[in-house]
Amino acid sequence: MADVSLAVDVAVPARVAYDQWSRFEEFPEFMPTVLSFEHPDETHLSWTLLDSTGREQRMHAEITEQVPGERISWRSTDGGFAGIVTFRPTGARSCRVTLQHSTLPEGDRGQFGDEPGLEKELTRVNLESFKKHMESTWPPPE
């Protein structure tokens, strides 16, 4: 099983970070490996990503748990991967965002496995992009 777990400290309240993350359709605006995103209903997600080899991959998942302000968990609809993102306050105006994802034993390695070091780097780039986006847009102008 290929596992990636990384965290980034963001200078915004946890609820603000969670609220932005849960607007999945905005990922392509600030995450360089997310090319497109669709949210067909409340629990299903589909996106096109650049994988660790630079190829486009289409992925489909369902949200398995969503606790507002705290965490979102998902699992691919074909059983290939799973993940969770958590938002933990580190102060009144700061939080730690931790992103974990795994290729499940029955899954196609695709996005999450042939190059675990590259996958970790892509995750780091996306988290750093999220941090930069959040800190440059919060607080919103009055």
UniProtKB/TrEMBL annotation:
Pfam families: Polyketide_cyc. Signal peptide: none annotated. It comes from the Bacteria. Residues 10-113 form the Coenzyme Q-binding protein COQ10 START domain. SUPFAM superfamilies: Bet v1-like. InterPro entries: COQ10_START, ORF3, START-like_dom_sf. This is SRPBCC family protein. It comes from Nocardiopsis sediminis. The lineage of its organism: Bacteria, Bacillati, Actinomycetota, Actinomycetes, Streptosporangiales.
